[in-house]
Amino acid sequence: MRILFVVPRSFNKKQMYKEYPLGVGILATLCRLNGHETLIYDGNVEDGEGDSVERWVEDFQPDVISYSIITPNYPVAKMQVVKLKKIYPSAIYIAGGLHPTLFPELVLKDGYDLVCLGEGESRFPLIIDAIESGKGFHHIDGVLFKDGSTAVNNPMTGARVDLNQLPFVDRNVFNLKRYTHHSLVASRGCPYKCNFCCNYSGTILQKGLSVSPADRVLDELEYLEKTFNASVVFFCDDIFFVKRKEILKFCAGYKERGLSLKWVGQMRADTLDDEIAVAMAQAGCQRLYFGVESGSEEVLVSTNKRLTKAQMLAGTNAAKKAGIRVKTGWIFGLPGTLADQKASIDFMLEMRPHEISVHQLIPFPGTPYYDSPEQFGIRIRNKLDFESFCYGGISDNIQFDYLTEEQLVDLYFEAAKRLEAAGYVASDKAKLGDEYLYSTPVNKNFMPVFRKTISESKERCHAE
Prior knowledge:
Blueprint: E1 2-7, H1 22-33, E2 37-42, H2 43-46, H3 53-60, E3 64-68, H4 74-87, E4 92-96, H5 98-102, H6 104-109, E5 114-116, H7 124-133, E6 143-147, E7 150-154, E8 182-184, E9 187-188, E10 210-211, H8 214-228, E11 232-235, H9 244-257, E12 262-267, H10 274-282, E13 285-293, H11 297-302, H12 309-321, E14 325-332, H13 338-351, E15 355-360, H14 368-371, E16 378-380, E17 398-400, H15 405-421, E18 425-426, E19 437-439, H16 451-463
Parallel strand pairs: 1-2, 1-3, 3-4, 4-5, 8-11, 11-12, 12-13, 13-14, 14-15, 15-19, 18-19
Antiparallel strand pairs: 5-6, 6-7, 9-10, 16-17
Helix pairs in contact: 3-4, 8-9, 9-10, 10-12, 13-15
C-alpha cells in the first residue's frame, strides 16, 4: 500500500517552530515495518516552501491519505479534502487526532471515509490491513466509518498504548532538511486539568498518562546522536518525565553514557528545585519552557492551574541559577479583571525569564471554556466556526464579558513598551546573542492576522 500522511498547516498562517510531527512519524514507521510505502506532507514546513499537497498526491499516487488534525488546522484539512477528492477520488481518506476524536460525526460528514479515534498506534495498522484485504472495519474498535449510506460507530475500548512497546520513530520518514532540530517524546498526557488546556489525557488517552522508562529514552537519545548526529533534541512532553525519580535517573544515565547532545524540555515550575535543575543542566538541558499563564493569584486559582506565583518564581530562579535558559508562556484574556491581566506584566518583570511568549485566550474544544463558556464570562456565537479557534486573530465569534477587544490589544502594546524598557527585544527584531526576548500577537513574524486590529489601535494611540 502507498500511504500519504498529511499534517495541514494552521488556518492562520504564522511563524512555526520547525518540529517534525512525531505522531504521524510513529504511524509511518509502523506501516513501513509492515511493508508499506509511506510519505509525510507537513504543511507547516512544505506549504511555506511553495509545495502543495495536491502536487504530492499527483506524484505519489497514494492508496490511502491520512490526515492528522487538531482544531487550528481543521479548516485547512476540510478545504484540502474537498479539493483532493475531486482530483483523486480513488484514495481512502482517513482522519485522526484530537479534533476528529472530539467531533467524529462532523468530520465524517465533511468528506472523510473513516475517523480513527484516540491513539492511532493500536488501530491504524489494523485499518490499513482491513483496506488492503477488503474485509471491512467492523472488527476494529475506536473507528467511525461509512458503510454505504450508514455511519458505523465502533467506540474506543482497551488499554492505552504502551510507549515502551513501540519501535523508535524512523526519522527517515521525515523530510529532515526542513527541520531545525530533532524531537522525542518520553511521556504522553498530563495529570493536571487546567481549564484552558485541551488535555491529551481524557481525550486522545481514555484515562491516565503513559511514561517511558528513563533507560528507553536514553536509548533513543543515543540513537539520535549516533545515527543522525543530533546536536539538539526537543522533548514534546507536556511535563518532562512527570516524576522526580525518573528525571534524576535520566540525568545520571545521560552522564554515564557520555552523551553530548543538548535538549529542551517543558515542565511545571513546581517540579524544579536546585537539585533537579543542577542535575538537568549537567545532563545537557539547554532550555526549559514553563507555562506561567498569569501573574494574578486569583486567575491562577480560577483556571485550576494548581500553582502559585511563589512556586513559579522559585522554579524559574532554580533553572536560571543552574545556567538553564528559561522561556515562559502567558495568556492574556483568562477570566478575570483588567487589573488581573496587567498583573501578568508586573510578574513578567519580577520573574525576568530569558524569553516571554504571550498569546490570547482561545477557548479550545475539549476545555471547560468551550463546554461551558457562559460560566466563565466567555461568549461563543457559533461553536462550530472552527476558523475562529486559532491563535493569531481576534474574532467576533469569541468575546469576553470582562475584556474588550480594544483592551486586549492595548495590553499587548503596554506589555511591549514595558518589556522593551526593561531590556527585552521583540522576536521579529532580535539578533543572534540577544539574551532577553519577547513575542506577542502584535509582533510582525508572530501573528500577521492581527495587522488590521493593530493598525486601528495605533491610529487610536496617535490620536490620543
